[in-house]
Amino acid sequence: MRHGPRLVLLLGGFLTLTAGSPGLRAPTSLAGGHVPPGFHDLMGFVTVVTTVAVGLLAGAALVPARGGQT
């Protein structure tokens, strides 16, 4: 039986690439004294993480779970 890639294995790389960049730029900008760009990056980080989380929850609610299949 052929199975596709596991969502859990893909999430780590996806979240690192998507949210990681603004998540690292925000504290760097804030620590460097660039407050407005730092808060802009922080809000971008919060937006990306929230959007990904809502999308995953919506997808889990819309797609029925596989009963007993692994």
Short key terms for the protein model shown above:
single chain; 70 residues; mainly alpha; 2 helices; elongated
What would your notes on this structure say?
The protein is 76% helix and 0% strand. It has helices at 7-31, 35-62. Helix 1 (7-31) runs antiparallel to helix 2 (35-62). The protein starts with 6 loop residues before the first helix and ends in an 8-residue tail after the last helix.
Mind sketching the topology for me?
Blueprint: H1 7-31, H2 35-62
Mean pLDDT: 76
Contiguous low-pLDDT stretches (5 residues minimum) are: none
Number of helix segments?
2
Strand-residue proportion: under 5%
Q: Could you tell me the number of beta strands?
A: 0
Short description:
This protein is mostly helical. It has helices at residues 7-31, 35-62.
